[in-house]
Amino acid sequence: MTATDTLPRRAAVAVFLSFALAYFISALLRAVTATLSPVLTSEFNLHARDLGLLAGGYFLGFAAMQLPLGAWLDRHGPKKVILGMLTVAVAGCAVFAMADGFTGLMAARALMGVGVAACLMAPLTGYRRWFDAGTQLRANAWMLMTGSLGMLASTLPVQWLLPLVGWRVLFWGLAALVLLAMGVIAVVVPRWRSIATQKIAVSADPASAKGQNGSYADIARKAYFRRATPLGAVCFGGMVAIQSLWAGPWLTRVAGATPLQAATGLFWMNLGMLVTFWGWGVLLPRMAARGVSVDRLVARIQPFSFVALAVMVAAGPALGEWTFVLLALYCMLSTPSAQVQPVVAMSFAPHLAGRALSAYNLVIFLGIFVVQWGIGLGADAFESLGGSAADSLRAAMAVFGLVSVACWVRFVRAGRG
Predict the structure, then answer these.
(1) Is residue 194 part of a domain?
(2) Which CATH number goes with the domain that contains 358?
C-alpha cells in the first residue's frame, strides 16, 4: 500500500459508515427468517427441512457469487461492484413481498443472497488498500458489530412491526432501505485506483507475491488459507447458521418459549454479539501491537464456546426461555474465529485481496448453508426414528458440536506444526 492509497481520517470514517449501512441491511435480511419462522411455518405449512432450506437459500445465492465477485472487486473496485449487486437485493425483497408459495420465497431468498454478496467483501477489499493493518482488524470487527446490529434489528423490532404492517410490507420497506444505502455509497465511497499491472506489485514485494498470480488455485494452495477453511466453514459458519436461523426454533421447540419470548431472547443474544465485536475492534489493534495473534485467541477462547453448546444441549428444556443466555455465550465465545478473515486477506498481496477474501467467504457461506440445512435434515431424521421434535433438534445440534470441535483441533494442530 502506498501513501496515496491511505484515506484521511474523516474520509475513512465516512466510507466505513456508508458501507456499514449496507452491511447492516444485509445482516438484517440474513437473520430475519429466525424471527419470521413461526409466521412462515404457519402460513406456508413448512417442515424443519423447508425452513432450513429457505434460510439457506440466501447463503446459496450468496456463495454462488463469491468467486466472480473477487475478480470483479480487484478489477473494478468496491464502489462499482456493490452498487450493481445491490440492485439485485432490491429485486429480491420485492419478490419476497409478493411470494405466494415456498418456491417464490426460495427464489427471493436466493436473489437477496446474490444482491448482498458484496456487502462485506467490498469494504474489506477497500480497507486492504485504504487502511493500515491495525485499522483493518478494527474495521473488520466493527463491520461485524454492524452486522450484529442488523441481526438485533431482525428480532424484537421485526416482532413488534409484524402485527402492525405484516411481513410483506416489511420487505417493501427493506427494499426502500437498500435503495437509500446505494445512494449513500454512490456519494461517499471514492473511485477505485487501478493497479496498472501485476508486475508492479510483484516487483514491490517479490516475497509476498511468490505464487500469487491471481488464480483461485494459487489462493487455495496457500497454507494459511487451507488451514483456516474448516474453522471458517464449521466454527464461524456454524455459529452464524445458529444465530441467523436455529436459535429461534431452539427457543420455541426445545426451551418452550413463546414467539415473543424467543424474539426477546434473540434480541439479547444479538446485543451481546454487538458488544463483543465492538470490544474486539477496540482490543485487536492493541493486541496485535503486543504480538498477540488471532490464532492464539482462537486456540484459547474458542473451546469455551463448545462448553456452552454442550451445556445447552444437555440441559434441553430445563432452562426454559433463559436458554438464550447459553446461546449468547456460545455465539460470543465463537467470535475469535471471525477475526481470522482479515488475517487471510493480509497473507496475500493487496492486488489479490478481493479474490482471497471472496474465496474464504465462499467457504464460510457454504458452511453456513450446509449447517443450516444439515441441522434441519438431522432433526427430521432423528424425529423419523421416533424422537420428539425437541430431542431430535438436540441430537442434530450435538452432532454439529462434535464436528466443530474436530475442525478447531485441526486448526490448532496445524498451527503448531
Answers:
(1) no
(2) 1.20.1250.20
Q: Give the domain extent around 338.
A: 7-189+201-416
How many folded domains does the chain comprise? 1
Q: 221 in a domain, yes or no?
A: yes
Q: What is the pLDDT of residue 194?
A: 65
Question: What pLDDT does 196 receive?
Answer: 46
State pTM to two decimals. Answer: 0.75
**Is residue 214 in a domain?**
yes
Q: Is residue 39 included in any domain, yes or no?
A: yes
User: What's the pLDDT tens digit per position in 294-311?
Assistant: 999 999 999 999 999 999
pLDDT digits (tens, 9 = 90+) for 331-365: 999 999 988 988 888 888 777 877 888 889 889 88
What is the pLDDT, as a whole number, of residue 98? 92
State the SS3 of the chain: CCHHHCCCHHHHHHHHHHHHHHHHHHHHHHHHHHHHHHHHHHHHCCCHHHHHHHHHHHHHHHHHCHHHHHHHHHHHCHHHHHHHHHHHHHHHHHHHHHCCCHHHHHHHHHHHHHHCCCCCHHHHHHHHHHCCHHHHHHHHHHHHHHHHHHHHHCCHHHHHHHHHHHHHHHHHHHHHHHHHHHHHHHHHCCCCCCCCCHHHHHHHCHHHHCCCCCCHHHHHHCHHHHHHHHHHHHHHHHHHHHHHHHHHHHHHHHCCCCHHHHHHHHHHHHHHHHHHHHHHHHHHHHHHHCCCCHHHHHHHHHHHHHHHHHHHHHHHHHHHHHHHHHHHHHHHHCHHHHHHHHHHHHCCCHHHHHHHHHHHHHHHHHHHHHHHHHHHHHHHHHHHCCCCHHHHHHHHHHHHHHHHHHHHHHHHHHHHC
